[in-house]
Amino acid sequence: MDALTHLQQFFEACIGTWTTERTYHYLTYQEVERSRTEFQIQPIQTEGKASVLVDNQYPEPADLNALPGYHLDFATVSEKGERVNQSLNMLFVPQGAENAIVVGDYLRDRAYEESRPIVSQFRFNPDHRELLMTTQYTQVVSVDSITLVNPRLRIRKILNYRRPTAGEALQEVVLVGFGVEQKS
Prior knowledge:
single chain; Lipocalin; ten-stranded antiparallel beta barrel; 2 helices; globular
């Protein structure tokens, strides 16, 4: 089975309702916070995929129907009682493979850290069933990993780095998040 087929199976397994228990470690001010998120992932139709491309001023690929695209609704409640609700559309555009690892662009009509359309990069390792997404925000670079343990369990890891000057390596971690995601 080729890497693109594994990627498609990964995304198919992600469709549905999930509950996440997360712990965030804010390293800049030494605080730990727990939260619970419930989210729903649904495929989007061709029109929704085209809209994400337009929002990001991204050229339309030859076979838009073949690209994985999703609508995500989530509601988070922190242990302090703070609530965040958000909806967004996302699209994954594979660009090729490097040693069986699929690489490409990850587009959203609304980003998590900044409420605007954004193009990020992704890497999918079929051997580990891990999707790694890297987003360059204004202040931070977010490296988000989702590992599909089985069709009903995912492990999430988020590392936010202070955005370095152009050409410098990621170094200063400002946030670390860990989560266990279970399908309902």
